[in-house]
Amino acid sequence: xxSLILRRPWEKLLAYAVLSVTGFVMVFPFIYMVLSSLKPSTxxxxxxxxxxxxxxxxxxYLEVLNIVPLGTQxxxxxIVTALVVLGWxxxxxxxxxxxxRLEFPGREFWFGAYLATLMVPFAVLIVPMxxxxxxxGWVDRLEALIIPWLFTAYGTFLLxxxxxxxxxxxxxxxxxxxxxxxxxxxxxxxxxxxxxIATLATFAFLYAWNSFLWPLIIISSPSRxxxxxxxxDLQALYAARVDLIMAGSTLAILPTLIVFLFAQRYFIxxxxxxxxxxx
Amino acid sequence: xxxxxxxxxxxxTARHLSGRRVRQWIDAFGMLLPTILGVLIFFLVPxxxxxxxxxxxxxxxxxxxxxxxxNYQRALSDPTFYRAMWNTAAFSLVTLVVSTVPALLLAVIxxxxxxxxxxxxxxxxxxxxxxxxxxxLLWRYLLNVDFGFVxxxxxxxxxEPIPWxxxxxxxxxxxxxxxxxxxxxxxxxxxxxGLQGVPPQLYEAASLDGASRWQQFLYITVxxxxxxxxxxxxxxxxxxxxxxxxxxxxxxxRSNTVGPADSMLTIVPLLWREAFIGGRMGYASALAWxxxxxxxxxxxxxxxxxxxxxxxx
Lengths: 279, 313
Hints:
The complex is a heterodimer. By secondary structure, chain A is mainly α.
């Protein structure tokens, strides 16, 4: 594809200027975060602000892990995230395959109805979900962060779209050989679906790692909180220790940036093809 | 389906096939079972309970009593509710522009064949993946009136520093700033995908006919991109109306106001505060249903309006 808009050199220059300035605005907060996390505490609040630390203080990280249980909270987040990712993938693969490749009465209706659940804002569910958790005895327990969130209409949609694109011949041949649908799913479709599953897994990761509203409601013990809550607590308790808050933020944000670095393709292509939200 | 079976199969397969059909139903049911259970227990039951609670005086604990429409009446006469509605509306309206127009501009530039486009695409996407709460805390310090870098830059340019987080009149602007900063990269990627779906031959034909680049943008890009634009507007609006993390992480104070003088208070933070700090679960449920109705109504209106400006091929 030829350049459609930028033809003259000065136009290209202008384009790069726009990209660079925007890129700077997008990245600067993270640079500020990491550098501030390594500063002595007085230097972070100095006027006018400086960027580079006068001395590197790794000990800020030890201190933040000592004053709040951020380590435990990171571990909780890892556990919750891993199980939610696994749950999303399993339930979406199964339901997506059933909706795409199996015939049963009312299939299109049920699929449409499932998608319609996306219209309901989460705000409608939080109060009754809290009461439900009271009934189940899951208030202030990690179960509440995991078990209700193992299924997703987004993921079912994504996998259904993928499975529908697989040619029918493969399946017919296997059916004539007497294979069951479960067998076909696991032996033929699952290996093919790896890219779609990777996309789904990255979104599940983002969703679970960054979730905040539900944990805020349901978890109150510091040792069971997740990292987003830990950060807000840290900010409330040690508002003046900006260096420690930045160290905590770095610990919470770095894992997602690392995952993004390796799975970039799946994030960006996944959004581009499905508009899947990583909220 | 039976009619898709090869015609050459011998006669006895008719019965065999119907057995296979039932078998398929059972398999489908088995595969859908986890989802069915999940939707039933963690969606449909709560949905029904929520609707019921919105007509009761439910508190944090104890049995609720039916109170008719009084929660809804109370919302409609509650100044805090109107404040939250107004904040949500102003926030959504401005964000709808601020988080989409720059996204489209960046997407148009990145759709060109220029060096470093994948690099820039990834850079713009970084704020999207980072935790909302984490980055919002960052901005809390970047926007600080004394030592924040934003005001440092503003002072360098020769202006007075802006009290982003300490004065009510700037509260909502701060929320818009942080939310848009985080959303632009997401919208840009969707616009980019839409742009890449525009066949290049259209531009070639138009430029042969002597259309200027601006005309090409206006008469090819804009209409061809309209389904994408529509999608971006609908999803951005739905997300804006439900905003929670940014105002809370940016503005929650010890006295549980959201921003100075509740200047960052939108609907979902208000709902959360009513339910889990005030313990008024019935009232909060009514707020949730009002929000739901507003979202449905606005989405419906957007779909109706879209007939006038969205062009599907």
